[in-house]
Amino acid sequence: MSDTKRINKVLILGSGGLSIGQAGEFDYSGSQAIKALKEEGIETVLVNPNIATIQTSKGFANEVYFLPVTKKFVEKIIAKERPDGILLGFGGQTALNCGMELSSSGVLEKYGVRVLGTPIKTIITSEDKGLFAEALTKINVKTPRSITVYNLDEGIAAAKKIGFPLIIRAGFALGGLGSGFCNNEEELKTLLHQALVYSSQVLVEESLKGWKEVEYEVMRDSYDNCMTVCNMENFDPLGIHTGESIVVAPSQTLTDKEYQKLRELSIKVIKSLGVVGECNVQFALDPDSEDYRVIEVNARLSRSSALASKATGYPLAFIAAKLSLGYSLVDIPNPVTKVTKAFFEPALDYIVVKIPRWDTDKFKKVDKKIGSSMKSVGEVMAIGRKFEEALQKAIRMINPSLNGLTDIRLMFDELDYELKNPTDKRVFAIVKALELGYSVKKLFEMTKIDKWFLYKIKNIVEINNELKKDSIESITPELLKISKQHGFSDKQVAKCILQDEHFDSELKIRELRKKHSVIPVIKQIDTLAGEFPCKTNYLYLTYNGDYDDVRVDDIGMRGIIVLGGGAYSIGSSVEFDWCCVECVKTLRKEKVPSIVINYNPETVSTDYDECDRLYFDELSFERVVDIYEKETPFGVIFSMGGQIPNNLVMPLSKYGVKTLGTAPEIIDKVEDRHKFSMVLDELGVDQPEWKELTDLNEIKSFCSRVGFPILIRPSYVLSGAAMNVVYEEADLDLFLKQATLVSKDHPVVLTKFITHAKEIDVDLVALNGDVKLYAISEHVENAGVHSGDATLVTPPQKLYLETVNKIKRIIKVIVKHLNITGPANFQFLAKDNKIKIIECNLRASRSFPFVSKVYNINFIELATKAIIGNQIPKVDTNAFDLEYVGVKAPQFSFTRLRGADPMLGVEMSSTGEVACLGDNLQEAFLKALLSTGFSIPKETILLSTGDVKKKARLLDSVKQLKKKGYVLYGTGGTTDFYKMHGINVEMLHWPLDNKKPNVLDYIKNKAVDLVINIPKSNEKIELSNDYIIRRGAADFSVPLITNLECTKLFIESICNYGEDDLTVKSWNEYHETLNK
Amino acid sequence: MKSHPKGKLILEDGSIYDGYSFGYSSSTAGEVVFCTGMAGYPQSLTDPSYTGQILVFTYPLIGNYGVSDSTVDKHNISIDFESNNIHVKSVIVSEYCAEHNHWNSKKSFETWLKENKIPALFGIDTRALTIKIREKGVMLGKIVIDDEESVGFYDPNKDNLVAEVSRNEVLSLGNGKHKIIVVDCGMKNNILRSFLKKDVTLKIVPWNYDFNQEEYDGLFISNGPGDPTHCKETIENIKKAMELKKPLFGICLGHQLLALASGANTYKLKYGHRGQNQPCVRNQKQGYITSQNHGYAVDKNSLPEGWEELFFNANDGTNEGIKHTTLPFFSVQFHPEGSCGPNDTMYLFDEFIEMIEKSKSLNVETNQETNQEMN
Q1: I need a surface site. Which of A366, A546, A957, B326 has the fewest CB within 10 A?
Q2: What's the Rg (C-alpha) of chain B?
Q3: What is the rounded average pLDDT of the residues A558-587?
Q4: In terms of CA atoms, which chain B residue is nearest residue A229?
């Protein structure tokens, strides 16, 4: 080590709740960093309020603080923990920004905390677009012609100098926020206005639209040794944010000269900037010459580095952490081969395709165009030995209901427009166009996507056409093999030659394949393309090969398969990865070889050292059976990865796969509404009145019988897709249309919507029908807010004992009756001490990590033991008697989802969550809210509090605010109401009234510190004043609350606590109080 | 979809790999080696060091950006190729790309192979084949098209391949102040391009040319194919040259020849180093990523007194460079000129030129001293 003082204790900043632009990749990088430090015997302290992460689990950091990653809290933690060093590069932009603030405010210097790895000065240069361009110009490296501006006029002048088209970028922004292209002065003005909101400094730049986008992941140690781990090429040309683009690794269309030129430049850049650790350099490359521009440098671990790490098998974050301690690349052993060194550039013998996972269908009114800022919520990575193979795998990973790239379910009314103005569906538009006979040349002109990629997609379309000419009798083994080599699924082949893709047809293709010995082979990812033997079992399946790299018979390790959670999306996120990782850890502890199947590059479960064998491949019936037949495992665990594996239980068990945990027929009984209803009736458990109907008249008569409001949803539900609450008959038709659009085959389910009820979540672990432990969490919001968007409190603070007792009884009865083994989650409504069950999942739920960590009892460890048939003790209920409270709050990303209505409803819309511990409800709640980026209002609050009943329910709270000295603004009715009750509220006009003083101006100018907008219960979807207020708050980053119960709790909390009153205690400290 | 005739690779141990034929349709034989580079197939195929070999690309997609034409620069050196011909006997890939795309592409990979009469196979499990070679060592193999087994195995290492690929005539290039003798043992063009960026005059000579009668400032021994022990004449010439104590630089085969001339030994590696990601270390801490293509190596334990290791391979510890402790002689096993591959060690050309400058100034001093003494 090169430093003067030995580093004994290091503080690591996490990235907080998952949001668009900053997702699971930082759980991966942070946990790798902690592993690397622990190996050195260094004590680690982690700040991260994201309770569902693996890095915040037992066995990682010595001390964990579930607190906001902000200067204020981190300073207190530094003062308390006195670390020698700090790592800023492993928690995304959040950690980097916080680190820069800690440095500039002198906190780091005051406490003698050394920034490990890349120095602060380098970070500032790389983050400040102006300084960055200057630094690169000095070493003769080209950057786009650009001018930094600080106001509108300067921006217009700069545009005149450079000329249109231009790109506008905000400095210091997360994932390209506040960026965009413009072709004229008007568009320029709009963009400048927005960008200046996010950052005081905005860049006006030459547009390189249509150039290739290529990035390099570069490492540098403190001895100036450099290497590039990987390069990646975007399928979409420049203009689409790399997080929004399909990406391949390694680059496919670059010659060696181009490859080496950009490689050399990226090394030149990081040497001159002085990065120590890892860095990402993004290039624009002219498709018609070798001209280039460096467009961005991220002097930290990034989404791309996580992807590069999974794509190559090179443990980038782990090595970067070692480098930050002063090690040389030449000295660190390569953890993959164990015989070579960390200093080498991986050679791939496969191709990797990444596709972003968008969830824009979840949001009403959201703009679906993709461009220079990020909207995707997750991503998948597919591995193959042909581009076509990897691409088709990736398409199915993004949406497991699709059979492949040719499975186009959308109508493109204006195909040409779609091709020229990309949305999240563009790749399907390309397929459609090829099917219609568009030439590659024409498509290239419309999309500027390199013809190489377009030719490959054309191959898929052509094979599909060939297949369609055949029948199951006539198809040749050659064509069958060719189609499989190009990534066709059995279902996709069935669709072509049997005109049907149901289970039986899929099985026919499977049989045919096996008859002709068309079966995939296992290949290993070894970082060196086979040149050296490797010790890890990081695997994928391909049809482009004849021999398995690994044969289970040879290694003699039968194990248990754990199915992962797939892509992160709204409703399925890092919490399921935590469950998978904890499950695998338990299996390993129990000496059972563990086999993971998953394809999400942002996860820890896809770190090859977490399990005995990792298959980075599809979670589909076909692929799981392929692996099952190779592995012949003891069985498969379905209950850890959320709904995607859960949906595979029935088909796999029908095929004869040995399932572990609760029996498949029971899972079916619970997933099927009718069967489950019968069970509940039999057990005498109440549920809200419901009916499954397809006939409009029947629907109407049901509604009039039970009365509005009514909840409408399709049969199978994941995170509330197409769910809606109907308040009056007039809305019924409109909503029915939406519900059927999602699933034509499935009837509509109508449920009486119970208002003003409390909602309660129960997570439990059972063994053979016996509940071994359970945790009850109550929702702050009343029923009607999706449980994934709700604020959860555990142990419950406001439930009646009678309610709790009733719930206990009900779960015991159901668990026994269904003979449940493993994890389960129940959701209840409680109103006037009456309990109704609304949901039951016989799998781990998203609150498992939350309750496990709050109670310090690992629910998944016990569930796993139960699943593999081990006895587990009944956990004493005293363990649930805490002297502190845990609060889990949703993390929203509305700012990024232009146009989306930022309000809570039955559809889930949060992208992540945080959870904090506190001495009481208010303290924990406030910490959690601050962790999601909220701030306590300083002086001014805007009120727009819904209908009269709601206004009245908030009356006491508003009085408290006034007493606390806040200046209150209100919209018309709200102002009148509170004035009538003697509270002085200043009236502002509605946005659509176009009168001054106007609400929207106050929001834009940040003249209000908090917006409280409680929607009326039957608010229409169309553009309304309330929508504009909410959207304004999201667009201009003003904290917003839209739920009445949350508002009350928030006001209570800020009236009792200031930010400085919140305690700074580590997870261990809370547990110690538990043990006393 | 276009159909291709079947083709197979038969290894000397009897194993058979089935695939399809593309390129020139003819059976052939050679030594089967693999290369792990992910780009740069036009440079690899025209690298004379691959003479007599059947090249397996571990990267599964080859031909993506087509092949450019043989445009030359002002020195009449091809811009995009490493020599004027394809030197491999055959190429084996998982997939070759028929529909290529690049601004600089003039023809498809397949067309280029056909023009040069190079048979090739695709649809082979190249990873399995690579692992086989890794486990068993490089093997002889033959490409058989359409079951017409007419060729026998051929071991290129028994032949003096250098004599096949070297030049017949002497060629002078450049007009700079340092005169360098370049011994062409099957040299890659980028060595010339790299030298010609400096202030040099090159005299490029055949492998067995006796340059010891010539006036020169520095001597360079190029890369080339096969077993270095075949080049007895070159080794003798180097031995003589070393007596002059003038700067001497060798690359790849040139490195092995310098080592042999110094009295050290070479040996055949199990499966060689062929790729663009080979890590080499100098002075224990400085690491460089290098481009490599060699089947033989210098045994560092056989280095005589006065010589020391300059670079070693971080993967397997084999020797990657040697230097004389007092005299201006050095050589490297890897390719500092890259092409294909990284240019991290391009600075070695500068070090060679610096050696020449230093040596010349020393000579001037010595001459002046001698003159003074005489006076």
Answers
A1: B326
A2: 21
A3: 96
A4: B277
Distances in Å between the Cα of A992 and the Cα atoms of A974, A1000, A1026 are 16, 9, 10
Q: How far apart are CA A749 and CA A723, in angstroms?
A: 10
pLDDT at A744 over 70: no
Contact B34 A530 (CB under 8 A): yes
* Distant-in-sequence, close-in-space partners of A444: CB < 8 Å, separation ≥ 6: A450, A451, A454
Which DSSP helix (H) or strand (E) runs through B289?
strand B286-298
Residue A182, min C-alpha distance to chain B (Å): 28
Helices within A378-525 (DSSP H only): 387-398, 415-420, 426-435, 440-447, 451-468, 477-485, 490-497, 503-515
**Contact at CB, A287 and B103, closer than 8 angstroms:** yes
d(CA B48, CA B85): 8
Q: Which of A227, A260, A351 is best to mutate for the B interface (most B CBs within 10 A)?
A: A260
In chain A, residues with a C-beta closer than 8 Å to the C-beta of B283 are: none
Say if the Cβ atoms of B340 and A351 lie within 8 Å.
no
Total domains in chain B come to: 2
Phi, psi of A1064 (to 5 degrees): -110, 95
Provide the CATH number for the domain around residue B170: 3.40.50.880
pLDDT grade for A731, boundaries at 50, 70 and 90 = confident
**Domain stops at, among B99, B127, B158:** B158
DSSP result, A1048-1066: HHHHHHHHH--GGGS----
User: Which ipTM was obtained for this model?
Assistant: 0.96
Q: Which of B274, B289, B345 to mutate to test the interface with A (most CBs of A within 10 A)?
A: B289
Residue B101 shares a structural domain with residue B211: no
Q: Percent of chain A at pLDDT above 70?
A: 96
- How does pLDDT run across A284-342, given as a tens digit for each residue? 999 999 999 999 999 999 999 999 999 999 999 999 999 999 999 999 988 777 778 89
Residue of A nearest to B316 (CA): A340
Mean per-residue pLDDT for A900-920? 91
Give B2's strand partners: none
| pLDDT band per the 50, 70, 90 thresholds, residue A880 | confident
Is B197 found in the same domain as B62?
Answer: no
The CATH number that applies at residue B132 is 3.50.30.20
Is B127 close to A530, i.e. CB distance below 8 A? yes
B125 touches chain A (CB under 8 A): yes
- Candidates B108, B277, B291, B318: best to mutate against A (most CBs of A within 10 A) is B277
Domain assignment present for B366 = no
User: How many CB contacts within 8 angstroms connect chain A with chain B?
Assistant: 176
The answer, yes or no, to whether residue B176 has pLDDT greater than 90, is: yes
A595-619: buried (b, 16+ CB within 10 Å) or exposed (e) per residue?
A: bbbbbbbbbbbbbbbbbbbbbbbbb
Q: B131 in contact with A at a CB cutoff of 8 Å?
A: yes
Our CA-based measurement puts residue B284 at a distance from the nearest CA of chain A, in whole angstroms, of 8
**Are residues B154 and B201 located together in one domain of the fold?**
no
Q: Which of A199-208, A448-457, A474-483 has the weakest average pLDDT?
A: A199-208
Nearest CA to CA, how far is A555 from chain B (Å)? 17
Show residues of chain B in contact with A346, CB under 8 Å: 277
pLDDT for A504-513, tens place per residue? 999 999 999 9
Residue numbers in A near B128 (CB within 8 A): 545-547, 549
Grouping H, G, I as helix, E, B as strand and the rest as coil, residue A133 is helix
Type of residue at B175: N
Span A1014-1022, average pLDDT: 68
User: How close B116 comes to chain A (CA, Å)?
Assistant: 21
Over 70: is that where the pLDDT of A711 sits? Answer: yes
In the predicted model, is pLDDT for residue A1 greater than 50? no
Single residue among B106, B130, B158 that ends a domain in this structure: B158
- pLDDT confidence of residue B372: 57
Q: Which tokens belong to A490?
A: 């059995």
